[in-house]
Amino acid sequence: MSSDSFASSGQGADTDLGFGDGDNLAEAAGHGADDNPTEAVPSDDIDLTDDAGPKIDPNLTGGRLILVGTPIGNLGDASPRMREAIETADVIAAEDTRRFLSLAQRLNLTHTKRVISVFDHNEGHRAPELVDIIAAGETVVLLSDAGMPAVSDPGYRVVKACAEAGLPITSTPGPSAVLMALAVSGLPSDRFSFEGFLPRKSGQRKTLLTELKAEKRTMVFFESPHRIADAMDDFAEIIGVDRPLAISRELTKTYEETLRGTVGSLRDQAAEGLRGELTLVLAGATEVETAPEDHLGEVSALVDSGVRAKDAAGQVAKKFGLSKRDVYEAWLHRD
Q1: CATH of domain 178-282
Q2: 150, HSE (Cβ side, Cα atoms, 13 Å)
Q3: What is the DSSP letter of 226?
C-alpha cells in the first residue's frame, strides 16, 4: 500500500491513505495493531530545534493541541478547517512524517518546518515533550496517516497527558471509516460499539467473539484482506451463519463497495478473496427470552472446573445478558 499510488475518478483524486480511524497503515507497514512492531518505523523528525522552555499558563499564551482528521482515501475530503489547522500550526506531530509531507504536497499546503513523528512506540516519551511545547504557548497539530488520531491510531497518550496538564484540546473532524461503514450498512445504527482490529490469531479471535456473542448493539470491526477468510470462519463458528453482516471495502475510493448479507453468505465471498481495506459491521444479538434457570448447567460446569460460584454466575450472566445476582440466586436454589 503506498500513498504514492493514485487512481482517478469523477469524485476527485483517490490515494491509498489507509483506514479512517484505523489501521494507522500498520497493516501495510507490517506492524498491525496487535503486533510487536519492530519492523517498519516512521521516519525521523524533520526539525525540532527550538527549546520548549519552561511551562507557563496556556490560557495566557494560546497554546493548544488540535487533533486533525485527514482523508481516508479521497483527497477531496480534505476540509478547509483541516487545511487551516495544518497551515497555522507551530508544530506538526505526525504518525509518519514522510506520509504527512506527501499529503501536504498533494494538497499544496504550506506548513511549519517543525514536523516530528509520533507513533505507537515513541508516543510515551513524545507526550511530555508536546505538553511542554503547548504549555509554552504553541499550537500543536496531531495527525495520523489517515482518519482521526487517537481512534485505533496513535494519539491517546498525547491527549491524556495534555488533559492531565489542563491544556486546551480540540479537533477538526474528518472522514471516518467506522461511521461511514455503519451508515451504509443498512443495520441498526442507533447504538453501536467499535471493536477495532480483530486479533490476528484464531484463538484470540474466538475468545473475543465469544465475549461479544450476546452483545445487542451493532458492532464494527477492522480486518485485513489476507485474514478475512479465516476471520469469517471464526464468525460462523462462534456468532452463527445467520447473523446479518455488512463488509465495506475501499471506502471513499474509486472501487468502494459494500457487501450485505449474513455471516454465512459473506463467508463464501470472503473465501474467494476480498481486496482492499475492510470494515465489518455485525448486527447485534436479537432479544431472546431466556431465564437464569436455563443456564444453570453452564454455571455448574464452571464451578466444577474450579471457578468460584459467584464468578461463574457473572460469566454466564454477561454471556447471556442476564443479571449476575439472578443467575447466582437461581444456582443457589437449584433443585
Answers
A1: 3.30.950.10
A2: 23
A3: T
Query: Is residue 41 packed enough to be buried (19+ CB in 10 Å), middle (13-18) or exposed (0-12)?
Result: middle
Lowest mean pLDDT of 22-36, 116-130, 300-314, name the range: 22-36
- For residue 305, what pLDDT is reported? 92
Do residues 225 and 181 touch, judged by C-beta distance below 8 A?
no
What would the grid cell of residue 233 be?
A: 470462519
66 touches 85 (CB < 8 A): yes
Instruction: Name the residue ranges covered by the structural domains of the chain.
Output: 6-175, 178-282, 292-332
Per-residue pLDDT of 147-156, as tens digits, reads 999 988 889 9
What are the phi and psi torsion angles at 139 (to 5°)?
-95, 125
**CATH for the 6-175 domain, from 3.40.50.2300, 3.40.640.10, 3.40.1010.10, 3.40.605.10:** 3.40.1010.10
For residues 247 and 221, give the distance between their C-alpha atoms in angstroms, rounded to a whole number. 10
* 262 Cβ neighbours under 8 A, 6+ residues apart: 241, 242, 243, 244, 245
DSSP string, 14-45: EE----TTS-TTHHHHT--TTS---S--PPPP
**Residues 75, 109: Cα–Cα separation, whole Å:** 12
For residue 178, what is the enclosing H or E element?
helix 177-184
Which is more confident, 251 or 50?
251
